[in-house]
Amino acid sequence: MGCCTGRCTLIFICTLQLMGKLRPDSVFQDPTIWNSVNFVLAALERQVFDFLGYQWAPILANFLHIIIVILGLFGTIQYRPRYIVVYAVWTAIWVTWNIFIICFYLEVGGLSKNSELLTFNISQHQSWWSENGPGCVRKEAPAAGIAGLDSQSYVSVIGCTLEYRYIEVMHSSFQILVALVGFVYACYVVSVFTEEEDSCLHK
Question: For 188, phi and psi rounded to 5 degrees?
């Protein structure tokens, strides 16, 4: 019973990291897995907003995260402890990455949110939330002396109820919370699986 509970919880956490709303009867019939899986969730949502903001470093990190979470989900469903160990190691890396993102947007340790670090110095884009956050009004003013179809304009954003860096910090904080819970349950499920393997070998 404990194994099923821990395993089901880890499946829920992996699903929480990947998907949005799912119907309980769409994939599995086990109600213990799907009782709580009606959340709007993290990795795919974050990937979309990073794509909209041309944030290339987070896009690559999110892509790796999605692959490893799928691997962890597969390992949990198929009783493969090695895959779950890979997932557990990745969650530690993922927590570190999200701490870096928080420090980046809060400008801790000499980091600047206005640098082009997250775009690999390819473009001068910022977070999508910087112009499209809650309450933000975007105003464009054409640049003086430049005419033509491809002329550039200055963009000013006013009236934001929440500054975009705090939205990014909340995203990363949520990712850290889910990853820490995932790490704990991954360790628990691996220990249960190895105990079962050991007990089967001694019989």
Answer: -65, -45
The total number of structural domains that make up the chain: 1
**Which domain range does residue 166 map to?**
54-108+162-202
Whether 89 has a pLDDT exceeding 90, the answer reads: yes
Residue 117 lies in a domain: no
pLDDT in tens, 172-202: 998 898 889 889 888 988 898 888 877 776 6
